[in-house]
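Two entries, shown back to back:
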Amino acid sequence: MSDIMSLQISALYAQYAQHFTQGEHLVCSSKLHAFTEQLHESGLLLECLDWNDWYQNSHLIDRPEYIGDASLQECQLLLTAMTRLERFSVGLLDNMRRQGVLLAILERLNQMIHN
């Protein structure tokens, strides 16, 4: 992982972790939009998404604790698929936030840069 990507992950974690806590609290849609924009700008999203990979790894979102062992590529796959699916199913990212998936991904990415 490059130093630039590590800095971007650290910045994303610092900026969004507290907002993405699991539960039914309200998170402004502009915050989620800003998050996806930063993902695009950071290079964390995959340019090419293999939907078969998504289907084979989508079980990771069933229980956020599964993400604790995910690889960088799996985290990128999840984030890429979710941001693309949000375009067709508005509210998907907020649902993933409520279920703890977004926070689990941010925590896993943050853990990777500190190990």
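entry 2 starts here
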Amino acid sequence: MSEGQPVDASEPSPDELIRESKRTIAQRLRHLRQRHPEGPFTLASLAERAGVSARTLAQAESSEGANVTLETLTKVAHSLGIRRIAYFLDHAVYQQVTAEFDALEQLRKQGVEGIAARRSAPTGLPPASVEQLTQLLSGIVANVEQARVALKDLPSSEHPNPPRESGS
């Protein structure tokens, strides 16, 4: 906006944008701490893991939020396997990371232990491909659970070990 142009009253003021951003960061930080697949974490345990103070995290999670630094957000995000600090402000990134963590949680509930959920180096895959893979894995997990339920309801065989045909 250049000098002399009227301010659009329908657009939020910078102060309103700041307050909303602080609330969003506080909510997402709290959500991440409480619902992370390796958590939930106490403020103290996450602070230690991220190398920041518990007081800083508590202030950042407060209802008014705090002027949390990019350094703090980056440390917290990286300590929990999130390489995109846009998680805290970009709704699309937040949804994608949350979907990935939900898929990971479902895999863990199914007893899957041998999958790498995050990489420290970029995958080179476009975000749309990562999203498709996440959806595919979620579908596989759902199908496995449906198959498990269906098989559980089948009557057990009268012959747990059916006789083998002899080769003579």
